[in-house]
């Protein structure tokens, strides 16, 4: 090892330390932004060190470096533009696309390492195993993430896409992929075997995610993120890069823990999700309920809701995907601030799988500068519902469905927000249509529940105007 390589190793150690510190800070909403910045600095340092090391050891292949520089420049410009212009409701799709890019990049690194290694010497197991695993996992992540992004975007149906014998086909493809992987490890000089691993893994990723229902979308996003990290770690082993190994291992471990927590929040095992999800995709909602649905529903006006909120002491807001879809985070924050200014205790009840990906609601509310201390997680929120005067449910459905307490349905056993424990419930929703699980919500027909059928953004604006009138009277 040269002195320069020793220095690069120390820089990698510094980067790894920044990754760990940043990841630790991401555990809490109040420090998550700074944690993200610290991790980004660590990655910039690691990339810079890798580029410098390659320049010193590559022998001056300037044409290749010029092509790489152009690619980095174009990719960086597009990435910054897309990240800054993406709608908050489209962030899950963007995350899935990023997962796909990460998986494909890791698989490409493995193929490049395979070609370079086999051109000179036969591969030993310490190289062939990570290369094959990288191609396998990276390819599954690439195709699976693209399908997940398509489901979240609505280009592909959100409901489970299955057909007679689909699970048997999945099993056959998985066995072929695993068999080819073992053969490629044993016979590492055979390029055709690695191509078989690549193709079958791509097919497996498509089939696996197609069979997963929209209700499992948050878990799928987290699972694919964990697989991306694992693929990156394998790429690090394939090219002997410590920064890739550490970064990939951290992402893989964190993603795995988050996946398990999300699955627990839905009372479903990760295996059952992979074998085939449940529920439907997002059903296009009409502007109001059908006539037959109104029979057992108590409809409210914005003035009715404004009166309840203006004279309440404790209010819990339950945000759901409908809030995100309406881009109403600023409106709900304004309403909450108005109520707090007139001595109403207002908190937000956040379910772990509310929205379309883990942490979606926290990010959405943080964008509207909602104080972190006002965001209550599941257990803390459920304790607060027992003393809540008004539970204001905005575009949420499955996460507060009391059917979870009874067996025999799609959400049975799923931990929910106990919005029905509040003294009064107000639900802002465009229609009575079910959520991703595809089943009715008895909360909407509860005698103490009032339904306000409207777009969340417009309704919250009107409610805010009404509250101002009542508190100033």
UniProtKB/TrEMBL annotation:
Belongs to the PNT beta subunit family. It comes from Rhodoglobus aureus. The chain crosses the membrane at residues 6-26, 38-56, 62-81, 93-117, 129-148, 168-186, 192-212, 219-239, 245-263. It catalyses: NAD(+) + NADPH + H(+)(in) = NADH + NADP(+) + H(+)(out). Its main location: membrane. Coiled coil: none annotated. Keywords: Cell inner membrane, Cell membrane, Membrane, NAD, NADP, Translocase, Transmembrane, Transmembrane helix. It is a multi-pass membrane protein. This is NAD(P) transhydrogenase subunit beta. It is found in: Cell inner membrane. Residues 10-464 form the NADP transhydrogenase beta-like domain. Pfam families: PNTB (PF02233). The transhydrogenation between NADH and NADP is coupled to respiration and ATP hydrolysis and functions as a proton pump across the membrane. The keyword Zinc does not apply. InterPro entries: DHS-like_NAD/FAD-binding_dom, NADH_DH_b, PNTB-like.
């Amino acid at each position: 090892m040269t002195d320069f390589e020793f220095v690069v190793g120390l820089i990698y150690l510094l980067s790894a330390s920044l990754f760990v510190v940043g990841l630790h800070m991401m555990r809490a909403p109040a420090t998550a932004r700074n944690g993200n910045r610290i991790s980004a600095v660590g990655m910039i340092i690691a990339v810079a060190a890798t580029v410098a090391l390659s320049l010193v050891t590559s022998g001056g292949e300037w044409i290749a470096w010029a092509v790489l520089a152009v690619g980095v420049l174009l990719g960086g410009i597009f990435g910054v533009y897309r990240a800054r212009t993406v709608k908050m409701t489209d962030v899950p799709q963007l995350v899935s696309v990023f997962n796909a890019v990460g998986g494909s990049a890791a698989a490409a690194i493995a193929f490049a390492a395979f070609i370079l290694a086999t051109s000179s010497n036969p591969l030993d197991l310490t190289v062939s195993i990570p290369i094959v695993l990288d191609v396998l996992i990276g390819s599954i992540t690439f195709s699976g993430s693209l399908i997940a992004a398509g489901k979240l975007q609505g280009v592909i149906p959100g409901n489970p896409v299955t057909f007679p014998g689909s699970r048997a086909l999945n099993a056959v493809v998985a066995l072929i992929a695993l068999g080819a992987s073992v053969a490629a490890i044993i016979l590492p000089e055979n390029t055709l075997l690695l191509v078989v691993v690549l193709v079958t893994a791509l097919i497996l990723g498509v089939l696996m995610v197609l069979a997963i229902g929209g209700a499992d979308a948050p878990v799928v996003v987290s699972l694919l993120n964990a697989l991306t990290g694992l693929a990156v770690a394998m790429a690090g082993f394939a090219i002997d890069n410590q920064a890739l190994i550490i970064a990939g291992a951290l992402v893989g471990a964190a993603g795995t823990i988050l996946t398990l927590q999300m699955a627990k929040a839905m009372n479903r095992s990760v295996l059952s999700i992979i074998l085939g999800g449940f529920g439907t995709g997002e059903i296009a909602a009409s502007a109001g309920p059908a006539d037959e649905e109104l029979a057992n529903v108590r409809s409210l006006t914005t003035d009715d809701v404004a009166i309840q909120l203006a004279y309440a002491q404790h209010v819990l807001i339950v945000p759901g995907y409908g809030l995100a879809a309406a881009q109403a985070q600023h409106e709900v924050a304004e309403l909450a601030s108005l109520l707090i200014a007139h001595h109403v205790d207002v908190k937000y009840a956040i379910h772990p799988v509310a929205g379309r990906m883990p942490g979606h609601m926290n990010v959405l509310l943080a964008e509207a500068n909602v104080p972190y201390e006002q965001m209550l997680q599941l257990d803390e929120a459920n304790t607060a519902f027992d003393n809540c005067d008004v539970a204001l449910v905005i575009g949420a459905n499955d996460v507060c469905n009391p059917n979870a307490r009874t067996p025999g349905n799609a959400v049975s056993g799923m931990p929910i927000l106990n919005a029905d424990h509040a003294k009064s419930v107000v639900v802002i929703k465009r229609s009575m249509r079910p959520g991703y699980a595809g089943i009715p919500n008895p909360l909407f027909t509860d005698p103490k529940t009032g339904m306000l059928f409207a777009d969340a953004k417009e309704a919250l604006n009107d409610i805010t105007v009404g509250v101002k009138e009542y508190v100033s009277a």
